[in-house]
Amino acid sequence: xxxxxxxxxxxxxxxxxxxxxxxxxxxxxxxxxxxxxxxxxxxxxxxxxxxxxxxxxxxxxxxxxxxxxxxxxxxxxxxxxxxxxxxxxxxxxxxxxxxxxxxxxxxxxxxxxxxxxxxxxxxxxxxxxxxxxxxxxxxxxxxxxxxxxxxxxxxxxxxxxxxxxxxxxxxxxxxxxxxxxxxxxxxxxxxxxxxxxxxxxxxxxxxxxxxxxxxxxxxxxxxxxxxxxxxxxxxxxxxxxxxxxxxxxxxxxxxxxxxxxxxxxxxxxxxxxxxxxxxxxxxxxxxxxxxxxxxxxxxxxxxxxxxxxxxxxxxxxxxxxxxxxxxxxxxxxxxxxx
Amino acid sequence: xxxxxxxxxxxxxxxxxxxxxxxxxxxxxxxxxxxxxxxxxxxxxxxxxxxxxxxxxxxxxxxxxxxxxxxxxxxxxxxxxxxxxxxxxxxxxxxxxxxxxxxxxxxxxxxxxxxxxxxxxxxxxxxxxxxxxxxxxxxxxxxxxxxxxxxxxxxxxxxxxxxxxxxxxxxxxxxxxxxxxxxxxxxxxxxxxxxxxxxxxxxxxxxxxxxxxxxxxxxxxxxxxxxxxxxxxxxxxxxxxxxxxxxxxxxxxxxxxxxxxxxxxxxxxxxxxxxxxxxxxxxxxxxxxxxxxxxxxxxxxxxxxxxxxxxxxxxxxxxxxxxxxxxxxxxxxxxxxx
DNA sequence: TTGAAAGCGCTAACAT
DNA sequence: ATGTTAGCGCTTTCAA
Lengths: 338, 338
What we know:
Two copies of one chain form a homodimer. Chain A is of the alpha/beta class. Chain A contains 13 helices and twelve strands.
């Protein structure tokens, strides 16, 4: 800290009060437009405040605030990753709602790791947020306990398959996998492969695969071969995985990908190889990304209501109703690739 | 709030002190591992703390903290949008640094609007952050004044073309545009078009275009036709804009896009039309996204060090050196599309 | 090594 | 309608 800051005196509420020639509490009332005061004092105060460039200290405000109003106008958000487009979309959904509600969000990234998540949640809790929005239902026992003990609103978003804490907003990952399997079967594909990214960390991708496999097996079918790349999902990873899979099992007639990024990689590979899609091989993704739906042949995939989930999660957090589970569902997109 | 919370008593430092049979300040010292205390008390205190499930209240801690330690372990981040992949990448870069430094980040979205930005920054400032990372150099006069008066570290990231406040981490958008123009000219393209998204809001896209046009004109050339779509940038928008442009000016031999998303749309259109790239028409993007580089023909584009910018921005914010401008540069990728 | 006491900047009774 | 007085939960002198 050298560039500026010769120990800047930050303007406080007391400074404003002195400047306006009124008491502290009057300033507080005027600035929060709460309680009663004459029109004249209102003007004097707001004028003094802006003349001094007063910025209220929310830390102090929240600390002093009534013990009823649990927490501040801060909300904590925990997402597994910023790499995956899905999460920025969720944030975007919340953003609108929180903006109009006057909430600020503190964001933590768990990196798909329940232990890191525990640490991140502790850190967020120490800011005494009004509530927490977290991703998925898989948490450590300690996290679950601490969350319940916190007494604040907890929203778990994205997935609905499992035990929850307070409010859940999402859809069934397992069911999404099943629906994908049913679609491929109904189209007549029988030699089905899978290309996925590191699934030990992405629990929901694992659940989709589980639902997918279960549905195939219920009808006497199976995944004939699978290729798991060790990295996070990406177009490049999908392309490499698909290449490896098809080289090993060329008779495969349809591939289920862990998500659209991966599936786009597969599609690019088909383009390069000159393979007709879906004649030579059908492709099925997950997410319903813009990039995937705008391909020369729109991807067959499952579109998830990410913005909507974010919005609902934010609304439920700020509203304060009973605990509940909201299933937002998903849409199977019958694209041109499967 | 009904699900749980029959007015939960949140454990305070005083509770821990009572439980451990010591004074408040002792607990404070032990928990922050600062000052001196016997090994015995250390154990008693930390045991009591974990038995009670104590979560320190950072609001109170920061408020009480020394007036020297400007601000908390909170940093404010302002980005224009969450839609554009670029910004999550920047956040990701910061995330790692802040995690290890024990900082929490509060994020605000300005929606490419200087007036909204002003409001967002005020809101962030009210949490008394240790510093602020904001995007770009274009701010309202009021924002600039308030930022300077705040006395905290301010990092402006992404762009270096213009007047700054404290620390700048980025590259020259104008120069990126120029480099793109030079590349297309050196490859022999002469009938050059432009397809862009709403540029009145995205200042940096406008600067790139300005640099691009200036360089063409310096060498006696010009942009023969341009198509601006009114929406935000997306693959679909790029495709539509490119279609319109080529329908109107079919003789165009190269197109400069406002970014990779848009350029991918153009590429998809060529695929659908069966146009050979770059023979029929060359394409040039901006950003260097995974999606663009993994195309059957890797996109010719400019890759920007987004993670690195985020990292450096975060480091500069936490480190506290003199004001400075750090130019991280960019890489022109000689792909297969131009 | 430890405790007591004085705030940090604000809000919320309670007076007036 | 407005001022006065306690705190909110913590950190930090300053004594002991």
